[in-house]
Inverse folding.
């Protein structure tokens, strides 16, 4: 958008032209000259602004899901948000991370290649301390990671990948698998140094510890799915596809909830004296004929009528009618 001059600036410009301080012909000549814009071929911009916005939305969803997951798992205050999304050469990304850090390398099947999730040691050890019953204090001793600590962190990072998969489901179905944990970024040769990567930086706070989680996505790995990141395809998704993952998980868990179902054979009324005199072999007469349908209650509410029978040697009932609840009119 062009700059808009204020009335004072317009008056100053007209005054300069009238006094000869500025020459109108020179201004026109300068405007007609070709403007040169510097372009660094080592920092090739291979992601469009449209694709960057889509990646930002995906990882904003990932940050929300990860916040919910870690809050429940660590039982402490967790806040994660997208700080920046940049595209730069892989070599520059490696130089920007700390000398000793936690680089989680994983393979995003079915894509061919590897991604990297770099977790600041302050964040990683705060999570580890909480997992082991501590207060979530941050301390950095990444250079001498024990086997037990490495195993716990690997399991913790694998759960992050499950959330990463859920965040990407609206674009592509991924099956990320943890490959290795590297502590020295100089030993990690993911792609060629000049290969363009997009780096999503997540500002993370866990308890009193804070730091960054950086996700490195090489262009060569996600090149095949870049057309799916356009706004046109994004807005064509159905409402069901855009349903947040936590609601899908909630619906799945509700469907698995146990529910009591009771089939009533009938009812009978007897006195306390008759009840106390009951013994093995006695018969209680019910108020329902063998030809009458049985009442099926679901959670104490009458829902169906059924008939008794046997199937493959087991006693059961067959639903014959659904009881329709009458609407209650408030008058």
């Amino acid at each position: 958008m062009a700059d808009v001059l204020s009335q004072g600036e317009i008056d100053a410009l007209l005054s300069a032209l009238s006094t000869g301080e500025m020459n109108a012909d020179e201004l026109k000549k300068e405007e007609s000259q070709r403007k040169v814009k510097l372009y660094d071929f080592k920092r090739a911009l291979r992601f469009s602004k449209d694709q960057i916005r889509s990646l930002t939305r995906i990882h904003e969803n990932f940050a929300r899901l990860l916040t919910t997951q870690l809050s429940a798992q660590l039982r402490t205050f967790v806040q994660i948000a997208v700080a920046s999304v940049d595209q730069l050469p892989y070599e520059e990304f490696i130089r920007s991370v700390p000398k000793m850090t936690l680089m989680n390398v994983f393979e995003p099947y079915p894509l061919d290649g590897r991604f990297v999730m770099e977790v600041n040691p302050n964040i990683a050890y705060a999570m580890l301390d909480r997992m082991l019953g501590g207060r979530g204090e941050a301390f950095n001793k990444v250079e001498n990671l024990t086997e037990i600590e490495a195993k716990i962190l690997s399991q913790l990072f694998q759960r992050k990948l499950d959330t990463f998969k859920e965040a990407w489901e609206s674009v592509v179905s991924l099956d990320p698998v943890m490959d290795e944990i590297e502590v020295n970024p100089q030993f990690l040769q993911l792609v060629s140094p000049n290969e363009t990567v997009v780096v999503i930086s997540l500002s993370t706070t866990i308890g009193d510890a804070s730091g960054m989680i950086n996700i490195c996505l090489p262009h060569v790995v996600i090149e095949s799915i870049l057309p799916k990141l356009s706004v046109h395809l994004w807005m064509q998704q159905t409402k069901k596809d855009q349903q947040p993952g936590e609601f899908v998980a909630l619906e799945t868990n509700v469907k698995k909830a146990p529910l009591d179902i009771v089939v009533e054979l009938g009812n009978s009324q007897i006195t306390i004296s008759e009840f106390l005199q009951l013994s093995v072999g006695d018969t209680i007469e019910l108020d329902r004929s063998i030809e009458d349908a049985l009442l099926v209650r679901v959670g104490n509410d009458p829902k169906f009528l059924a008939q008794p029978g046997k199937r493959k040697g087991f006693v059961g009932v067959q639903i014959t009618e659904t009881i329709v609840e009458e609407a209650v009119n408030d008058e």
